[in-house]
Every structure is written in C-alpha cells, then in structure tokens.
Write a structure and sequence with these properties.
Elements lengths: L5 H13 L6 H12 L2 H18 L3 E3 L6 E3 L10 E4 L4 E6 L4 E7 L7 H18 L3 E7 L4 E12 L4 E12 L4 E12 L5 E12 L6 H37 L20 H8 L1
Antiparallel strand pairs: 1-2, 3-4, 4-5, 6-7, 7-8, 8-9, 9-10
Helix pairs in contact: 1-2, 1-3, 4-5
Length: 278
C-alpha cells in the first residue's frame, strides 16, 4: 500500500464503507483507518461517503425530547447538514460520523400535501408497528407533488455473528396516482466465514383517485401490504427450496469409502471411538 497515494487510499476506503453490512460501518471504518494510516485525510475524505451511506441505508436517529426514531434519508434533507422530522415539524443537525442529532429548530411546512401526508403517516405508522418488530417509518413530501414513505427495520445480533436490514422506499405521485416502490434486504452472517444475502425488488401500481384523504391513505398502504406479503412469501419459498433441495444436492450421497454408514456398528469406526472417549 506504500506506493498508493493517500487520496487513492481514501477512495478505496470510501468504496469499502459504502459496501458495509448492516450495523458494521464502524467496524469497517476502524479497519480502513489502519489501511489509510492518516486520520485527518480519512476524516476529510469520507464525510460525503458517510452521508451517502447513511441516507441510502435509512439510518435512524432519536431526536432530543422525543420517543420515536426518525429516518435520515435524502428526501428529508433541507440544508447542507440539516434534515427534517415531518412529525414534529422540526429540523435537526445530523452528525454523519457520530450518528447524533442536535440543534433542533421549528420548521414551517408550506406543502399543499401536508394534510394528505399526515393521513398517510398515520396509516403507515400503524402498519409498521404491526408488521415490523423494530420498524421505523418517516413520511415526506417532495416539490414534485409526491408522498415518500421510508421504512427500515434493523436486527443486529453481533454476539451470534449476524446482522440484517430490511428497507423500503415508496413514492406516490399525487398527480398521476402511480405508486413505485423498492425493497432491499441485506443479511450478513460471519461466524467462521463470510456469507451475505443481498436481495432487492421493485414494485409499481396504479391507484384510483379518491377524494377522501383518509381513504386514499388506506388504499395506498393496502398496496404496500399486498406487495410486502407477496415478497416475503416468495423469499420464504426460495430459501426453503435451498434448504430442502439445493444444499442437499451439494452433499455427498456416500462417504468417501463409497459405503453407507452402518450406524449399528458405529463403535467400530474411528469417529465412534473418538466420540466415546469424549
């Protein structure tokens, strides 16, 4: 690595950070910090990378004096380093390195979609609370007359060497009444190995215009629920197929001796003697 410039090392480190598994970005950062061996250059060079990672992965933060988490995503950015919590109508400064929120300020919402956003938010929060054990949901509006629903559910279990994340983003165009969504699932298992699952799926639907905002929100979440259930079922079927057929097909049909194991004579085999001694 001595022949590589510090700038190139930082670029390589940035690519590693963007590929960090759920809940492990700090571990990756500590590793690349040793490789770069220049804390000042590393910190200056990866701030933009950390912001990209945090917003793409729907990193959550708990604001001061609140009892819920907020998703940090690109749709909530209202300044160079400030993000909006639409529920409390406040903006906050977010530290992408330490993942902390500070400096809360009131925010005047001027969007004509605010009442619809609130109706969608109510339905979305109920859905997430019912279906996601650790789910967080934040609903935004955009300048393009869109309602954006961001959802994330993280499960970190480093003591058992695995972490996982389910995240989805839904965009409802209030003019064309089209709904577009994308769901990404990332699971990392790293006990005596390194196995990752990366799956993603997109969805599109056309909704019927409903004048009542509450009913429009109900119809919107019904579409999301239908997709999530179908996608979850498909994934379950796929992994059952892997467990029952694909992985079994990789196993030897016979031991290396080409003879079936006679379990009634297990003590005659070397492995049986070794087990008996233990």
């Amino acid at each position: 690595m001595s022949s590589i410039s510090v700038e190139d090392k930082v670029k390589i480190a940035s690519s590693f950070l963007l590929s960090s598994p759920p809940g492990e970005v700090n571990d990756v950062f500590n590793d690349v910090r040793i490789l770069v061996n220049d804390d000042e250059a590393l910190q200056d060079g990866i701030l933009q990378t950390l912001e990209q990672y945090n917003t793409e992965q729907h990193i959550t933060v708990r604001l001061p004096d609140t009892d819920y988490d907020v998703i940090v995503c690109k749709h909530g950015k209202v300044g160079e380093d400030r993000f909006l919590d639409p529920r409390s109508k406040k903006t906050f400064k977010f530290d992408h390195m330490r993942l902390t929120a500070s400096d809360l300020e009131d925010y005047a919402v001027e969007s004509p979609l605010e009442s619809l956003r609130e109706a969608v938010e109510k339905e979305a929060l109920e859905y997430v609370n019912d279906h996601y054990p650790n789910g967080v949901c934040t609903v935004h509006t955009t300048e393009n007359n869109e309602i954006v629903i961001a959802i994330v559910d993280n499960k970190y279990n480093p003591n058992n060497f695995w972490n996982g994340r389910w995240l989805s983003s839904w965009i409802y165009d209030t003019q064309s009444h089209s709904l577009k969504g994308s769901t990404k699932v990332n699971v990392h298992y790293y006990e005596e190995g390194n196995v990752q699952l990366n799956a993603d799926k997109t969805f599109e639907a056309q909704l019927t215009e409903i004048s009542d905002e509450k009913q429009q929100a109900v119809a919107l979440l019904k579409q999301i629920t239908t997709f999530d259930r179908a996608y979850q079922s498909t994934m379950n079927e796929s992994y059952n197929e892997l467990a029952e057929n694909t992985f079994k097909g990789l196993r030897r049909t016979l031991p290396m001796t080409r003879n079936k194991m006679d379990w009634s004579k297990i003590m005659n085999y070397k492995i049986g003697n070794e087990l008996a001694q233990k």
